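QA checklist item 7 of 12: single-chain prediction sanity check.
[x] sequence parsed
[x] length recorded as 279
[x] structure emitted
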Amino acid sequence: MDKKLQIILCSVLGLLLLTALVLTIVLTAYGCSFRRGENGPDPGPSGETKQSETEGQTQQPSSVLQETPDAGLSYQDEIIFVGDSTTAHLRSREVLTGGKDTKQVWCPDNNTLLLDSEITSVKIVYPELSGEDAYKTIPEAASLKQPKYMIITLGLNGIMSHVDNRKNFEYSYSKLIDAIKSVSSETKIIIQSIFPVSAACDAFSADAAQVNQNIDTVNGWLRELSAQKGVYYLDSQSVLKDGSGMLKTEYDNGDGIHLTKSAYELLLSYIRTHAVPNS
């Protein structure tokens, strides 16, 4: 082949290859742009979606109960309350249907319930029965009652140690939730926030400010745990606090921990106006 012709052919071939390369780059860039426009904004460097025009707004976990119209007494009457003395005093303050004889409160005889790995073995008094037959574990009682709603309020007892043992705390709470679900699958479980203490509280090894800081920390865990376990979280403690994060003086029954009747009435109002969806 003539040397001049070879040079021409090589030049043409090179030009064709260059054109193909340019077209490939253009089409690839167009395709990426199209996919971004179709599926939303580019993920950030950590794989998270970049903030949109709602930047700055805090997204609430779906498990956190939001404000609703008042669901009424019929909703409140279908709730079983499980917990320690702050739950037991719902009965003594006579704020539930039936007053002191209400059957909605599940607590041990001594009203003390510590959240630990033995939580599913502790006996509460199941008010539907009497005598020795009334002593049931929480899962046993749930199996018998099949409650529509159950509010669990635990964590204040032992708060100074809980804050240093998140893994153990969450294990124990999860164990209780799983045990209830296994015997009463239709029950809507609601984890209620731990209530704050007042400035007058001296029942712990730290001052009230530190106790409330620990409570806030653990309540943050409970919000996350509720989402992980597929149950609801009720942030009722928010209506009990003063500007410094303490239990309001007017809601303190005298020992810095337990609540007045008006405080329970406020809590019940909060519960009814933050009802489970489609209740």
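[x] summary fact logged: The helical segments are 3-39, 72-76, 85-92, 138-145, 159-162, 166-183, 208-229, 261-272.
[ ] second reviewer sign-off
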